[in-house]
Amino acid sequence: MARFRMYPTPAQAEQMLTHCAHARYVWNLAVEQHAHWKPGRKGAPGFAEQCRQLTEARRENEWLGAGNADVQQQALKDFAKAKNAKFTSGFGEPTWRRKFRHEGFRVIGTDRVPEYNADGSPKLNAKTDKQVMGRSVVVQKLNRRWAQVKVPGCGWVRFRLSAQGKGAKPPDAKTFRVTYRHGQWHIAFAVIPAPIPAPSTGEVIGIDRGVTITAALSDGRTLNCPQLTVRERAQISKHQRRAARARKNSPQKAAGYAKVARLKAREANRRKDWCEKISTMLARTYGLVRFEKLNIKNMTRSARGSVEQPGRHVAQKAGLNRGILAQGWGLLRRRTGDKAPGRVEDVPAPYTSLRCSACGWIEKSSRKSQAEFECVSCGFTCNADTNAAVNVAAGQGGIPRPRRAAGAGGVTAATGRSSAREPQPAWVGIPLF
Ligand SMILES: [Zn+2]
Fold this sequence. Notes:
Blueprint: E1 2-7, H1 10-35, H2 47-60, H3 62-66, H4 69-84, E2 103-108, E3 111-114, E4 133-136, E5 139-141, E6 146-151, E7 155-160, E8 175-181, E9 184-189, E10 204-209, E11 215-217, E12 222-223, H5 230-245, H6 251-285, E13 288-293, H7 296-299, H8 314-325, H9 329-339, E14 344-348, E15 372-374, E16 381-383, H10 384-393
Parallel strand pairs: 10-13, 13-14
Antiparallel strand pairs: 1-7, 1-9, 2-8, 3-4, 5-6, 6-7, 8-9, 10-11, 11-12, 15-16
Bound molecules: zinc ion (ZN).
């Protein structure tokens, strides 16, 4: 996917907000139709049937008919896709879209281009033997930095060609999606980037992800995901405090929360940018990239507990969860996999942080502190995260849980949840520096 910031004129922005509203309305209608379904009832209408119903609805409702038919139909298409992918996408059943939160719409290209098969021969219709014509988005490059795209009802809308080399072409895509969040417009083209070819060295790298150091590499390098600065964090709490104290429904309250949202969006943007750069670097420099296998969903589970059995250290755990999610672990793994298909492996994580990378001895007391590792067996000293990364690079750590009966002294048996855990810092959460 290629995403760029869009700069519409005020008139264009107004028209695009109308598109967003119509797309959301149609999507929510589809959600409602499918939510109505129960076992025993006739099936909810599919895409083709919904399109017929949309045509009818457009005829009956003047305001809907005044909107763009393509935008509304694409909302149905998006819904059908989301519905089909509900088991594989990770998002589950498609749900309601809300005003201000889910502002966006999809546009299908209006240009017609001949389609080709994988071997380069023109794609022909099986029945009529005619050339199949596919859709393509109409994009014009203005100069090195700017391009424009045709949006229905708005004419040419400009967007900035960020993060592209000199002479780079705007992407060829069949559709694009326009989104509006935190007062900014973005355009995302639906394209799958070409995989980055592997270097000839075939070098293997292991990556250990953590909260203190985002990614420790097995060659000793440490990479850190950019966070908000102390000043920006202070600004967030200031605006949050002011907004909380402002009168209900006042413009001050809305403006305060908008400022908070913009600062948080800045953090997310930095994290995404960092993940893109690092994943490209990994795919370009190493033949095989090994990540330790993490279940981030389980790791960030809340400690809240139930009403009868309230959990302990709930706020602390919430802080740690925020710290984990602020590292972009999942995104880094996914984007590396996208850019280097078949060259990324997941190594099971247990004991990667407790195993000595020099002699293979596993002992809890080898890990002196968060940063220090000193093997009690051979005396090898190393940064604890680098040591773990070397284990990951070697594909080690994924050995079965050592049993007490196995004999060899010095192996820490997993007696309870806390016995073989990494040493935890006294205070965990978003780092202060
Ligand atoms: Zn050792």
